[in-house]
Structure to design on (743 residues):
């Protein structure tokens, strides 16, 4: 069967009428690439720029203001790329978490029977969805975060969060004997698996249900707490301290979040959450009333029908478009270049490019990085879609 | 009677049980702490009249800033005496689109043809200048006009390109098929900003040194190619929604590939995806301000410039709120219109 298909397609492609345009397209494409390469060689020679990726190993000579790994001007451009990539992934990760939480809350609120709440959620969605993201980022950065009080007059919330124009400061958590908590978590996960197995068995044998979810949360707290007492786990907060240096006040220590990161995070989360909220709403609305009625008539109570009937079907509708929104969020995090958050685009396609002048190599690397992230997420999505697709007979 | 009615309405919709009551009270509180101060800031205690920052003495917004810079926000550094040329081209566009609501189906196709192939030439001649009109180089274009020019150019050019790509993706010929797939997936996988950087910095390196394409045009082409991948996916959705019988019928009438697609398949497919194309255009309109990051004097760029002016320091909020209002109105009405279309087409199918 396959062979015949192959043969047919072979015959089709080598019919002259089909062959010539295909050949022409390929030929033009190759010619175009050849033309570009030739020009690039001539131009680079004229400007005394060598091509190639050797520059990744040379010293970068510039500093970035926010980095997850040790970095300064003496590190290489390759390291700068890594800094940018990690910063992109960091803001994307937190953006996805906040956008998802906000999106679900707003999406469910829009369907609330409380008229005020649903109208307010609709207003939120329409407001943030229809404004350009770059404008929102500028607004959060230049209008809100740049106008916060200066360092001496910081806002201090509950002795925990310090807010000023330099950023947000959280206390750093310093654990001693931290490994005991990990043992505790591992042990509770093990017991939860055993609990699920046991409760399923009980359900099949006697029809009784255990409150698995509540019990698991209880176990998840219980064992780490017991083990942390046994293992003498200590926890200290390292609060940021106000230090005066040459008449300039500064907070030192703690965990500092720079305003660029926060502005980008706020804007990305709010913007993406509106799209996720619309997906959630569409997903819940896609469940016909008959499904809930059928569950009721089978004797399911409200929470069981939600858990076993409504949510699994709604998720089938919600997850694919939401994954696309995650993808958009990762791509949109490149808007960071507008406010100088050192993400991949701004560190690599911005600063590194202007330092080295290697436009072709650098833009190629940046595009390929985003492309790999996108393709990776779509691969997962395709796999998931195949897994959940209705098997129609 | 009326009061009683209102009371029952409130009880039913807002205070039906204890948690709804708490939510309602919280919402009312939220509205009270945000809306009145905002209205006060925008209208009641704002300053509208004046010529200088010092004219703003009240606590509200200083709209004098926007009034003074209005022409710069709208047209950038475009020569003031030639602004009518930009206005005229936008007027032509609006009138053409406006007439399309009142004419018959067949005439709409001519309008589409006019918009895609003839209007860009007219607009280009008008805005850049030729035939005795003073020439305004594209580096002097700016403001909101530039945003709209690039977005509209992007959608008009990307439309035919996207249709071709969509056809290519569904083609049986492997070279066309895989070329289209790679092209579409590549452009959809990268952020617009990298395309802008490539157009601004990398593209000149790929052309001969004496062959100069100006930056605005490079960026416009970059946006159009980027957008064509999205249009292609939208059009593909429309192609897939057509029943196979349409193809068979066209074939059995003896039509060839192009005849079949142009007279039978595409008119039906495109009609169903007009809302999708409108959504793509809205997304493009919201993305175009990004050109400010490659140094174009787009409306946000002009605001950033104006707020850094020593005479107008601290006016960022007014500028951004002004830009936000424009974009919000444009994109909200476009999206409501596209939702209306979506509803209209979905009822026609049933």
């Amino acid at each position: 069967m396959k062979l015949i298909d192959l043969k047919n397609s072979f015959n089709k492609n080598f019919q002259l009428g089909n062959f010539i345009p295909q050949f022409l397209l390929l030929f033009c494409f190759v010619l175009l690439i050849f033309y570009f390469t030739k020009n690039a060689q001539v131009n680079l020679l004229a400007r005394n720029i060598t091509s190639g990726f050797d520059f990744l190993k040379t010293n970068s000579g510039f500093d970035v203001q926010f980095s997850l790994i040790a970095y300064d001007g003496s590190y290489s451009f390759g390291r700068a790329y890594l800094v940018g990539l990690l910063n992109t992934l960091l803001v994307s990760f937190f953006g996805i978490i906040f956008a998802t939480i906000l999106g679900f809350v707003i999406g469910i609120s829009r369907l609330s029977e409380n008229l005020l709440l649903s109208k307010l959620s609709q207003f939120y969605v329409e407001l943030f969805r229809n404004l350009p993201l770059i404008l929102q980022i500028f607004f959060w950065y230049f209008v809100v975060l740049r106008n916060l009080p200066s360092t001496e007059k910081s806002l201090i919330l509950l002795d925990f969060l310090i807010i000023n124009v330099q950023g947000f400061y959280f206390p750093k958590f310093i654990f001693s004997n931290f490994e005991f908590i990990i043992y505790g978590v591992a042990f509770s996960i093990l017991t939860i698996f055993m609990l699920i197995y046991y409760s399923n068995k009980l359900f099949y044998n006697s029809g009784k249900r255990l409150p698995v979810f509540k019990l698991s949360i209880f176990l998840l707290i219980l064992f780490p707490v017991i083990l942390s007492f046994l293992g003498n786990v200590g926890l200290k907060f390292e609060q940021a301290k106000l230090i005066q240096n040459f008449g300039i006040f500064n907070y030192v220590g703690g965990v500092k979040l720079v305003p660029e990161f926060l502005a980008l995070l706020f804007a990305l989360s709010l913007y993406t959450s509106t799209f996720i909220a619309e997906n959630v709403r569409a997903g819940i609305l896609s469940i016909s009333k008959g499904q809930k009625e059928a569950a009721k008539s089978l004797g399911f109570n409200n929470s069981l029908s939600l858990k076993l009937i409504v949510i699994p079907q709604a998720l089938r509708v919600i997850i694919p478009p939401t994954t696309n929104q995650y993808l958009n969020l990762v791509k949109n995090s490149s808007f960071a270049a507008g406010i100088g958050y050192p993400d991949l685009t701004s560190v690599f396609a911005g600063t590194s490019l202007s330092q080295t002048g290697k436009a072709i190599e650098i833009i190629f690397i940046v595009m390929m990085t985003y492309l790999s992230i996108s393709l990776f997420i779509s691969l997962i999505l395709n796999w998931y879609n195949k897994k959940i697709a209705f098997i129609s007979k | 009677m009326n009061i009683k009615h209102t009371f029952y309405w409130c009880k039913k919709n807002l205070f039906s049980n204890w948690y709804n009551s708490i939510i309602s009270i919280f919402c009312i509180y939220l509205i009270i702490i945000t809306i009145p101060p905002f209205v006060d800031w925008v209208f009641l205690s704002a300053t509208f009249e004046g010529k200088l920052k010092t004219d703003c003495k009240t606590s509200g917004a200083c709209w004098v800033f926007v009034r003074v810079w209005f022409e710069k926000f709208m047209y950038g550094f475009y020569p003031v005496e030639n602004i009518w040329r930009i206005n005229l081209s936008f007027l032509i566009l609006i009138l053409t689109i406006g007439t399309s609501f009142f004419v018959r189906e067949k005439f709409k196709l001519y309008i589409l043809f006019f918009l895609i192939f003839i209007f860009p030439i007219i607009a280009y001649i008008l805005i850049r200048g030729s035939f005795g009109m003073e020439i305004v180089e594209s580096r002097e274009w700016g403001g909101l006009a530039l945003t709209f020019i690039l977005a509209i150019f992007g959608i008009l050019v990307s439309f035919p390109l996207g249709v071709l790509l969509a056809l290519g993706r569904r083609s049986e010929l492997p070279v066309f098929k895989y070329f289209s797939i790679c092209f579409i997936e590549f452009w959809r996988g990268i952020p617009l900003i990298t395309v802008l950087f490539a157009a601004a910095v990398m593209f000149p390196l790929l052309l001969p040194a004496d062959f100069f394409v100006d930056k605005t045009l490079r960026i416009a082409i970059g946006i159009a190619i980027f957008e064509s991948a999205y249009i292609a996916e939208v059009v593909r959705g429309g192609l897939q929604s057509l029943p196979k019988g349409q193809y068979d019928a066209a074939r059995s009438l003896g039509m060839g590939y192009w005849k079949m697609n142009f007279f039978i398949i595409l008119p039906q497919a495109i009609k169903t995806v007009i809302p999708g194309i409108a959504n793509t255009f809205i997304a493009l309109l919201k993305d175009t301000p990004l050109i400010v990051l490659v140094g174009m004097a787009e409306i946000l760029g002009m605001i950033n410039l104006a707020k850094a002016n020593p005479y107008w320091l601290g006016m960022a909020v007014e500028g951004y709120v002004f830009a936000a209002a424009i974009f919000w109105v444009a994109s909200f009405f476009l999206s409501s219109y596209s939702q209306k279309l979506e509803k209209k087409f979905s009822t026609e199918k049933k």
Chain B has two domains: 2-44, 64-78+136-244+272-349.
